[in-house]
Design a protein that fits this description.
By secondary structure, the protein is of the alpha/beta class. The chain has helices spanning 22-39, 53-58, 75-85, 103-113, 148-154, 165-168, 174-183, 187-197; strands spanning 47-49, 65-67, 91-94, 118-122, 129-134, 158-159. The protein has a 4-stranded mixed beta sheet with strand order 3-5-4-6. A two-stranded parallel ribbon has the order 1-2. Helix 1 runs antiparallel to helix 8. The longest helix has 18 residues, at 22-39. It is globular, with a radius of gyration of 16 Å.
Length: 201
């Protein structure tokens, strides 16, 4: 799971909460994503790739390992770094903006993936990628960015479709955050959004 430096993270989401609270929202979403990942019975290890000190401190007690984002050349490079450190094991790449993620949705998607060497789950809009995964010994070959669903399909990854709404609902905009709230936000994001809404943040 890669996490950008907070000053550059989720720029399209700005305006969903007061500007001073934007970084705290990003951290809360990452913590909820990670919490759901670690609660998934199929997942045995979680790795965060980031150079953001605030994020490193925030996840310290959640049970994930952290490695620096080197050489800090973007999302796909960070995912490649994480995949290389997990060589010999199946690898699952998730972005840190899935605050409604439910462990059972992730488990169902990973079970579907077990029939394929490499696959992806498109996001709710259908153009992006919510999850990319590869079997042990298979290159992850991440192609995140605009139109990543099409790019992953073109690279040979199998599209995985299922009733996994919480896995598909990434958050890039205020409208996405509202959609995630309709599904049910995780503890950290729900507490933060509630406190912000009622003036307690």
């Amino acid at each position: 799971m890669p996490v950008k430096r907070l000053a550059m993270a989720k720029t399209r989401l700005r305006g969903a909460v007061p500007a001073a609270d934007h970084a705290r929202l990003v951290v809360a979403m990452a913590k909820d994503t990670l919490t759901a990942v670690l609660a998934c019975p199929i997942v045995h290890h979680a790795l965060i790739v980031t150079d953001e000190p605030t994020m490193v401190a925030a996840i310290a007690d959640l049970g994930a390992q952290h490695v620096p984002d080197r050489p800090d050349t973007g999302l796909n490079a960070a995912l490649e770094r994480g995949a290389a450190l997990a060589a010999g094991s199946p690898v699952v790449a998730l972005t840190a903006d899935l605050p409604a993620l439910r462990p059972q949705d992730l488990a169902a998607a990973l079970t579907a993936l077990s029939y394929h060497p490499r696959g992806y789950v498109p996001d709710a809009a259908g153009t992006g990628t919510a999850m990319l995964a590869a079997a042990a010994g298979v290159a992850l070959d991440p192609r995140f960015g605009p139109g990543s669903a099409r790019a992953h399909a073109a690279s040979g990854a199998v599209r995985l479709d299922g009733d996994w709404p919480s896995l598909r609902q990434d958050v890039d905009t205020p409208a996405d955050l509202a959609a995630a709230a309709d599904l049910g936000l995780g503890r950290y994001t729900a507490e933060f959004v509630g406190a912000t809404r009622y003036g307690g943040a």
